[in-house]
Amino acid sequence: MVGVFLIAFASVTLGHAQGLGSISPPQYFSSDLPSLPSLKKERAVFCGEDCLSEEYILAKKSTRRSSVRKTSNASQDRPDLELNTEYFLNIFSDTKYIFLSPLRWKAADWIKASLVLGTTGVLFALDDDIQEFFQDERSSNTDNLAEIFEPFGNGGYTFTGLAAYYVYGHFFKNPKAERTALLAVESFAVTGIFTFALKFSTGRVRPRSAKDSGDWSGPNFDDVSFPSGHTSSAFAIATVFATEYKNNPWVPPIAYGLASLTGLSRLNDNKHWASDVFFGAALGYFVSKTVLKLHSNKKGRHYTIYPRVSRREAGLEFAMRF
Predict the structure, then answer these.
(1) Residue 231: pLDDT above 80?
(2) Among 42-51, 116-125, 205-214, 219-228, where is mean pLDDT lowest?
(3) β-pair type (314-321, 51-60)
(4) For the chain, how many structural domains are there in total?
(5) Which residues are registered as beta bridge partners of 70?
């Protein structure tokens, strides 16, 4: 039964695989517009990857040549998110997208999923030995270190920290900080949904209470272990910061370092098995990568159609903002 749950839910975890490549450049799709025999349609060709907004003239009656213009310059940051109703609704739509991602996988994606499952399986076999090693080496010093890093995976602390970071970005006019905070909150939330689904479905007993690493009690919420929620949360948030601030050489190693130490703290405290921690890290990382991909491509585009009328022309104007 454990294997069945692992295969089913791990596949959901790796739904990011199609999006690990570089972000695609803006897609010009004026050719996808319906053919209107009586209308003229033109396309902008002057705008490359740095294009933030373009306008297309779909239809017009004019005595002069139709015009197409770029309405604004691009910033180096990707499109900002807003804290509104759509943001919260997107959390559910993105969760559905990630859950159904295996239906769109290619061979390379299944290979990545197999590697994660295979490594998790190896750690299953070694869980008892790893747990014994950490408990033998446990001391007041390791307990003190674990106490420092455990909060990075604790929802109460991390959510408060992200909320404070969003407030900072809002009041100090820092769109990147706002965007990063919102992306991190969504990654945290979506990762939490999958984490709790796995915990309930597998019902793995924590090492401090289990007879051995093979103690699985089935569906329940009573002190369940697989995967590590602290670790999945820490890696979900770390991945957002490491990606959004990848141009800063210090941020990625610090972010992933803190997430890794959070996972190790769970082993030291005898709260999780090694396989719980590894799979939680993979879950948080891959879910976060998918959320980032969705908001870089799909969620970053805004479309508007509005009339354009003047003395010499009349028609419709289509604007696409990247």
Answers:
(1) yes
(2) 42-51
(3) antiparallel
(4) 1
(5) 54
> Within a domain: residue 301?
no
Burial of residue 22, with CB atoms counted within 10 A of its CB: 0-12 exposed, 13-18 middle, 19 or more buried:
exposed
Is 35 inside a domain boundary? no
Residue found under tokens 């920290």: 161
Q: Which of 61-70, 145-154, 175-184 has the lowest mean pLDDT?
A: 61-70
Apex 200 CA angle, 195 and 202, nearest 5: 95
Asked if residues 123 and 231 have their Cβ atoms less than 8 Å apart, the reply is: no
**φ/ψ bin of 194: left (φ > 0), alpha (ψ from -120 to 50), beta (otherwise):** alpha
- Please, are residues 287 and 191 in contact by the beta-carbon 8 Å criterion? yes
Residue (of 122, 78, 126) closest to 240 by Cα position? 78
Residue 271, domain member (yes or no): yes
Contacts of 215 (CB under 8 A, 6+ apart): 204, 205
129, exposed or middle or buried, with CB in 10 Å at 0-12, 13-18, 19+? exposed
Closest CA to 181 of 120, 241, 257: 241
- Under 8 Å between Cβ of 199 and 224: yes
The answer to whether 283 and 191 are in contact (CB under 8 A) is yes
**What is the token pair recorded at 58?**
């779909």
Structure tokens at 68: 């197409």
Query: Which tens digits make up the pLDDT trace of 271-290?
Result: 999 999 999 999 999 999 99
Look at residue 50 and tell me if it is in a domain. no
pTM: 0.70
**Residue partners of 307: CB distance under 8 A and separation at least 6:** 314, 315, 316, 317
Residue 64 has pLDDT above 80, yes or no: no
Per the CB < 8 A criterion, the answer to whether 305 and 318 are in contact is yes
Domain that holds residue 212: 2-25+76-296
Asked whether 117 and 6 are in contact (CB, 8 A), the reply is yes
- Both tokens of 48, joined, read 């490359």
Report the C-alpha gap between 191 and 305 in whole angstroms. Answer: 36
Helix or strand holding residue 201 (H, E)? helix 175-202
